[in-house]
Amino acid sequence: xxxxxxxxxxxxxxxxxxxxxxxxxxxxxxxxxxxxxxxxxxxxxxxxxxxxxxxxxxxxxxxxxxxxxxxxxxxxxxxxxxxxxxxxxxxxxxxxxxxxxxxxxxxxxxxxxxxxxxxxxxxxxxxxxxxxxxxxxxxxxxxxxxxxxxxxxxxxxxxxxxxxxxxxxxxxxxxxxxxxxxxxxxxxxxxxxxxxxxxxxxxxxxxxxxxxxxxxxxxxxxxxxxxxxxxxxxxxxxxxxxxxxxxxxxxxxxxxxxxxxxxxxxxxxxxxxxxxxxxxxxxxxxxxxxxxxxxxxxxxxxxxxxxxxxxxxxxxxxxxxxxxxxxx
Length: 328
Fold this sequence. Notes:
This protein is α+β, with helices and mostly antiparallel strands. The chain folds into 2 domains: 2-209, TIM Barrel (Alpha-Beta Barrel); 214-327, no CATH class. It contains 7 helices and 22 strands. It has helices at 28-37, 97-106, 123-127, 140-146, 152-160, 194-203, 250-256; strands at residues 2-4, 9-14, 42-43, 60-61, 64-69, 78-83, 110-113, 134-139, 166-170, 184-189, 206-209, 214-220, 223-228, 233-238, 243-247, 262-270, 273-280, 284-290, 295-301, 308-314, 320-323, 326-327. Strands 2, 3, 4, 10, 11, 14, 15, 20, 21 and 22 form a 10-stranded mixed sheet that branches. A 7-stranded antiparallel sheet has the order 1-12-13-19-18-17-16, with helices on one face. A 5-stranded mixed sheet has the order 5-6-7-8-9. The longest helix is centred in the N-terminal third of the chain and has 10 residues, at 28-37. It starts with a strand and ends with a strand.
C-alpha cells in the first residue's frame, strides 16, 4: 500500500473543538477565524451534545458533535464524536453507545471515540463496541491539562485484536491558547469540500500530526518507506512482539561498527544532503537521506513485522506524526 500526499491537495483540519455553544470561550464564528488565520483548511466544531451550525467562505466547515453517553467499566461516560451530520440523533438512538455508532454509520458519517486515556477506558470498553472509524491517538487538551493525551497503546491493542481502526489527532480546545494547535489531521482531497474531506476520512486517506509533515509512505510485508519533513525517530509498530525502532543517533553506532549485525555501512554528504546505506544481519537494508527540511527513510528485507504496520514519525522537538495502519 502506498499513499502520496503530494498528488492531491493536502488539507489540514481540526476534528474536535468547542465553542460558546457548550464550554468553549470563543463563539463559533471566532473558532473559524482562529483556525483560518493559523493555516487550517477545514474545521469541525464539536460542541457537547449540541449541533453547532456555522458557515464561512474562508474554509471548509463540517458539522460535528461530541456526545457523552453510556457507562464504561469504571463508571465513566464514553465520549463519541460524529463528523458530517446535518441533524442531531434522536434520544432513542442515544440510549446506548453502539446504537449511536450504528446510527452514524447508517448515515455514512465519520465517527470516533474521543480521548480513551483521559476517559480511562479499558481495552474491553473499546472491544465491546463495533463499527467506529477511529480513536483519538492524540488529544492536545488532555495532554496539557492532565498528561493523558496519547492513546497509542489502545490503538495497537485494537489493531492486534483484528480491528480496522484509524487514528486521529485533535485539539479538543476550549481555551484557544495552551490547549490549541497541537493536534490535527491532513486529508488528501481533490478539492477543498466537505464531501471530499469526509471521503478522505472514511477511507483512511489522511495522516495525523502535532508537527511533522508527511509527503509519502509505502508499506509492504518486506518494505517500509517514509518521506517527510526532517525527523529524528521512526517508530514502526506491528503485531505480536514485533516492531522496529530507528533513531538518527543509531548512525553513530553503525559508523563505529561496534556491533556484528552491521555488515556494510556507507555514508556521504553532498550539497547539504546527508545519505547513508547500511546492510544489516538477516538480510535487512536501510537507506536514509536527510536534508534541511526533508527526510527519506527506507528499510527492506526480512523485517520483524506481523499482522499490521503503523508508523510514527518524530521530529527533534518531540512532535509526532501518526500514519494510518496497513494490514500485511
